[in-house]
Amino acid sequence: MQIYWTKINRIIDETPEVKTYMLDCPEGFTWEEGSHTHFALKGFNAGEKPNRSLIRHMSISTLPHENSIGITTRIKPECSEFKSILRDMAVGSEVALFKTHSNVPLKRENKNVYLLSSGVGLATFRPLVMDYLGRMDNVNQIHSLNIDSTKDFLFPDIFNALPNQKFSVQFVDNRIQYYDAVKELADDQDGLFYVVGSDEFLQQNIEILRSKGIDPAQIVLDKHPQQRSGFLPEEI
């Protein structure tokens, strides 16, 4: 396993509780839209076994052409040891990246794509939208649905409320409105449904999509195949 050590070059305050840590691109490090990585703090591999409390599974919120690796995360006042250390880190601090992979690349199958997320889950979808806006080939249109009661919406320069005919954005502030909207979107029996969030959030979305007749093959999760089978056992 190759570990890429790199440095924070910029810290962006996206909202009062959400920060993006922009990292230098180490030589040989590659990724694509929808990628996640293992993001580790100094000391995680100092002992005989990795210190898992200093490692988190994070989505990369940027594309390679932006020349920085973006890690976007929510840090609440009361938070874990990992988030507490991260909150106090500054530009120039070292972090490590390893095991980078994408389970949710943008599928270009001439279908409508629906991006379903909660809160900071939008960070996973930012690169997909940017990739699409840069090249719209073989995707009919994209619709993003996000539940966020804070009203401090992420990435307003991209996820704005002024849709064009091929990219539209919808924010709701409660789960009732959100799941009602999912049911409406699922009327598109040929669409592709990307879902990012907690395991409970995934299960609830899958239950609604399946009840509306959406095939498991149309549901895209940020999970490895063996993890995915726990959410969509019908595929086995």
Low-confidence segments, ≥5 residues, pLDDT <50?
A: none
Number of structural domains? 2
Strand order of the largest sheet: 4-3-6-1-2-5
Beta strand %: 25-35%
CATH domain topology of the largest domain: Rossmann fold
CATH class of the largest domain: Alpha Beta
Tell me the total number of β-strands: 11
CATH architecture of the largest domain: 3-Layer(aba) Sandwich
Order of helices and strands: EEEEEHEEHEEHEHEH
Distance between the termini: 29 Å
CATH superfamily of the largest domain: Nucleotide-binding domain of ferredoxin-NADP reductase (FNR) module
Mean pLDDT: 92
Q: Number of helical runs?
A: 5
Helix/strand/pairing class, anyone? Answer: alpha/beta
Radius of gyration: 18 Å
Helix fraction bin: 10-25%
Commentary on this structure:
This is Dihydropteridine reductase. The chain has helices at 81-87, 122-134, 175-185, 199-211, 225-231; strands at 4-13, 18-23, 35-41, 55-59, 69-74, 94-102, 111-118, 139-147, 167-172, 192-196, 219-221. It has 236 residues and is α/β, with parallel strands linked by helices. The chain folds into two domains: 4-102, Translation factors (Elongation Factor Tu (Ef-tu), domain 3); 111-235, Nucleotide-binding domain of ferredoxin-NADP reductase (FNR) module (Rossmann fold), CATH 3.40.50. Helix 4 links the parallel strand 10 (192-196) and strand 11 (219-221). The longest helix has 13 residues, at 122-134. The radius of gyration is 18 Å and the shape is globular. The two termini are 29 Å apart. The mean pLDDT is 92.
